Amino acid sequence: MRAFFVWMSIGFLWISHSYGIEDNELKGMLLDEFRPFEEIPFSKFDWIRQKQSVSDKQFHRVLTNLWAETEGRVSMQEQESDEKERARVILSFIISLLPRCGDIPVKDFLRDAVMSVKDTFVRWDIIHEYLPLADADEAREILLRFLVGEERLSGGDRLEIYSYAEGAHDGTDSLEKRAAILGVLAVAADREEEKVIFMKVDGILAKRNGLYRRSRERLAMLARHALEPPTTNLYTDRDLAAALKEVRGYRDLARIDTNLASVAAGEAGWTRLENTVPKKWTPVPPETPKRRLSAWIAGAVAAIAATTLGCLLWRGVRRKRR
Hints:
Blueprint: H1 2-18, H2 23-33, H3 42-51, H4 56-75, H5 82-97, H6 107-116, H7 120-133, H8 136-147, H9 155-170, H10 175-191, H11 195-208, H12 210-213, H13 216-226, H14 234-249, H15 260-264, H16 289-321
């Protein structure tokens, strides 16, 4: 009889393991792993799912339910607190884990979340995960909203979004999506008030689009920011001066469309020309005094050589006549 109960217990444990765990138990295990100031240990969560036989569907369900329970603790509390910071950590982990739910679509969830969440730090995480999943129109919409539109973020926040847009651009093979991202960044650059932040987005654009790099519009932006007082960041002023000198050295400047309406409608055709700066666009620097002096010396040497050669030939002709 005792052996019977032992085998029954073993069978029950085997069946429990085979059928996984309850949602609340899984939620508790996940919360134990949601720790601040740590990189997300994806391998640990994969191990938990495999050991506990957690399906994509259950994993997604638990994460979205946990989001619904936690999101309000961030949005409703205006003052900073330990509870609010803990809620941020939980939401950040959820955002990063949702795309790992197999084939279950999460793009719409992230899009709705970024539109409703007002907390800056959580919004960063959502945009970071959403942009790689978005198509061209969706990427354009979300970037216009937070870089140009009525919900335009503050300067430091825009720096983060510029970096996320750069990664999304380089991470896609879609020419339409790349064009959409470049168009919004150009509009944002034209409206950028702060020199340091402008140089960030300008660098992204100049490395990825030859027309922007040698455009009249870029020249005007650079010249405008060059008039601002020097920054405490020495690299910013150095890079701006170098970029301004480069653009002024081009023989022919291009024209690009940075009109908000055109970019929003996807009609900025220059953004589809994605070649890096061709060799024929290599800037021609203006002559410096040193260069002019070298040219003068070379000319003088050539003149002396020609005169000497002429004298030698003349003397040779006179000798023959004698």
